[in-house]
Amino acid sequence: MIVDVTDDCARLALDIVGETLIGGTFGACSYDDNGNRLTQSMLHLTRETFTAKNHEKQIDMNGRHQLDFIDNLIQHRWATSDRTLDFADTKLILFAGSETTATAMALTLLTLAYRNDIQIQLREQLYGLSTFEIIQNSLLDSFIHEILRFWAIAPFITRRSTRDLTCQNSSGRTLLIPNNTDIDILVWSIHRSPLYYIRVDELNITRTYSNKRSYLPFSTGSRMCPGMEFAITELKIIVALLLEQIEFEPLVSISPLDCSQFLSEQQFHIDWYHAVIHTKEHVCLKIRPRLPVFSK
């Protein structure tokens, strides 16, 4: 069957962030009268993994009940001079936890469909592993890291200078950056720069990332994305669970030699306000339920 994974991933990401960060589902995966099987399957496979701690009253080592992410944020605000969690804060949490992840999910599935060699490798390595083993798997970790380089979901980072600064460009010219200036760091250009990477337009899961300054999917420093570990873990578990249940295929057959070029030529819209990319067209793929495997 053919499915629109862009729509499916958007609904799944919204429900996951609702259950894990706020403590309640938005029902995004349940409104479809036609019973979208992929969406329901993805939510079913991920819900227990991400929400078990939210549905049980767990006590930490100090005897205190664990709180949802947003509860911790409210407590932090109450302990500071700013004692309100306004609409903009809540909107940011929901957006950061769902919109960027939805795009990453859809592009990850697109990559697996057109790189069947990677899909097969991952399925063989991840079959039968526990959740902890999945998260620790080195091949899956390398795959997710390369996905986040190849598809720079947040294509730029904006920072504001807090004092007058001077720096030199590549030609040696001194530049003055005045206080209170917005500075855009073009992550997409850095991730595709031959100064830092060999064969930048090739998706290579054996690639290493020794220079942290040239790998910025979640920014860096004290203001890097606080949801980094959550997002990476989410992607890993979704990939592992889906590969166990489903095989992904492209709508049009392309030779293995042309797959990297096809992927690198995908077109996007940039949401400059929220700093995220969206595919120009919805990602649609063929899927096939996998036959049960009774022995490894």
From TrEMBL:
Assigned keywords, A-Z: Heme, Iron, Metal-binding, Monooxygenase, Oxidoreductase
Cofactor(s) for this UniProt protein: heme
Stored InterPro entries: Cyt_P450 (IPR001128), Cyt_P450_CS (IPR017972), Cyt_P450_E_grp-I (IPR002401), Cyt_P450_sf (IPR036396), Insect_CytP450_Detox (IPR050476)
Residues bound to heme: C225
Pfam families documented for this protein: p450
Keyword Iron appears in the UniProt entry: yes
GO molecular-function term, one example from the UniProt record: iron ion binding
Record has NAD as a keyword: no
Family: Belongs to the cytochrome P450 family.
Record's protein name: Cytochrome P450
Species whose genome carries this gene: Rotaria socialis
